[in-house]
Structure formats: structure tokens, C-alpha cells
Amino acid sequence: MTRRHRTACLFAALAASSAAFAETPPDVEDLVGARGAGGETQLLSRGYEQRDSNTVRDQRFTFWWNPRNRQCISVSTTDGRYASIQAVPVANCGASDAAASRPYPSAERDPNSLVLVCYGAGTRPTVKSEPTYTWDDKRNKWHEADTIQGSSEGFNSDVQIELYGDHGRIHLGAALIPPINSHGDHGWWELDNLQVGPDRITAEYRLNGMNKPRLSVDRRSGRITIQGMTSFSGQCDIGNYGGGQRRF
Predict the structure, then answer these.
(1) What letter does residue 97 receive in the DSSP assignment?
(2) Residue 209 and residue 56: Cα distance in Å, rounded?
């Protein structure tokens, strides 16, 4: 196998890994890139019901619920087109699911629990191949080769956080999950070193042995930041809050 073929195989494997975490349900994956109006018509015809929507900067996030297969999806719309469609926990659509809620009590049953749904954007590491030429002294001619270089790419995603007493967990959008990870529990990761103060929430979670991102949520502004190998910032519980009061 030539070096160029090995490079091609490497990128095919990386693409497969990324596809595995795309989390776009098969019944709606053809709607990514569709215009908003046409996409809504298609979602309705496929049994989905619109539940809620929020706008963050230039993006609109809409939740759709399919009672037939008990599936909740988050649709991100940018410039009038569906930029991404992701499967999210059913609680985002106001539904309940035993696997998704275990082992935490629901916020409706326990006044001490707190659920945050956040939207935003970030950057993550990636690799790219660029063609180059090197001089072959033995053959006395230029030789074509491929070089692999580290880079970064932007993405949009949603995050859900559930807190109960001194315990908590986080559900990550597909773009925030690296190909090599501990898989969590149904897409959830336990929060470590959780600190819930009157104005700020901080915690960590372990994606793999070398990647332990740290999150911080400002309870006055609703701003969330996640710092690790992948960075993310966004807004939680969108609303019109003023007078210096907390958002949650």
C-alpha cells in the first residue's frame, strides 16, 4: 500500500468515526440543508410535532417530538436552512423516558433539582491532508506525497445539564464528543468536582483518560463555557432577565 493510499484510508476511518457520532436520525437526515419552510412541512408529514424554539445570535434552535417512535430532535437553522438535526434527550420535548432519566429524579418531582438546556458554538481539533512534493535523492526526481497537519474547525451544538443536590450529569451534542471516549451512560457523563454557588456553577467531566473538560455557568447571565481539547461557549435557559437577578 502506497503512502497516499494509507493517507486516504486514514481519512476514511476518521470520516467513519465522525459519522458514527453525527447522531442525525435516519428518518430526517435527508433534511439537513433543506430550507426552513420546506423542512417544517416534511417534519410534520413524518409525524413530528414542534414543541419549543430559541434563538441564539444568528441561529434558531427548534425542538420536534415524534410520538410514534418517541424521538426528540433539535433542529438548528442558519440563513434560512437546516444546518444540523440532532437526536436529544426526550426531556427537551417535554416527554419522559426511563433510560434518559435514570438515576436522577425529575425536576418536576424534586424542587432541589435543576435542568439547564444550553445552545452555542465552539471549536474542536481536526486533521487535514495537503499534497506536497519532496526530492528523492535515490531516484533523482521529485516525489509526490501527502502531509497531515493539525487544524481546528467550528461547530454548533446544544448541551443539557441536570443537577440534583451535590450530584450532576451532562448530555453533550455530537460535536462535543470525540471519536475516542468512555461512551458515558446513554449519552450522559457524570459531573465531578461539582460546585453549585449562588452565582456560578462549576464542574468537570471525563471523556477519556486525557480529556477532562471543565465547565462554568454564570447564573446571572446564563453564559456557559466549556474548556478542554474542545472549547464551547453558549447561553443557557434563554429569556429576558434584568435587574441583576439570576436567570436560574
Answers:
(1) -
(2) 33
User: With pLDDT > 70 as the criterion, what percentage of the chain qualifies?
Assistant: 77
- Asked whether residue 131 is assigned to any structural domain, the reply reads no
pLDDT in tens, 120-140: 888 887 767 777 777 778 888
In a domain, 245, yes or no: no
Of 79, 59, 81, the closest CA to residue 173 belongs to 59
Cis bond before residue 103 (omega within 30° of 0)? yes
Mean pLDDT, residues 141-170: 81
Number of helices and strands in the chain (H, E): 3, 13
Torsion, Cα 56 166 172 26, to 10 degrees, reads -110
pLDDT band per the 50, 70, 90 thresholds, residue 170: very high
Please tell me the predicted confidence (pLDDT) of residue 241: 42
- Total Cβ atoms within 10 A of residue 113: 17
Cα 160 from chain centre? 9
Q: Among candidates 215, 5, 14, which has minimal Cα distance to 127? A: 14
Assess whether pLDDT exceeds 50 at residue 15.
no
User: By residue range, what is the domain housing residue 212?
Assistant: 3-126+151-236
Residue 112 in any domain: the answer is yes
Tell me the three cell numbers of residue 193.
468536582
- pLDDT of residue 222 exceeding 70: yes
Distance of alpha carbon 4 from alpha carbon 26, whole angstroms: 33
Residue (of 61, 117, 67, 112) closest to 92 by Cα position = 117
pTM, rounded to two decimals? 0.56
Question: What is the domain count for the chain?
Answer: 1
Between CA 161 and CA 115 the distance in angstroms is: 6
Residue at 99 is within a domain: yes
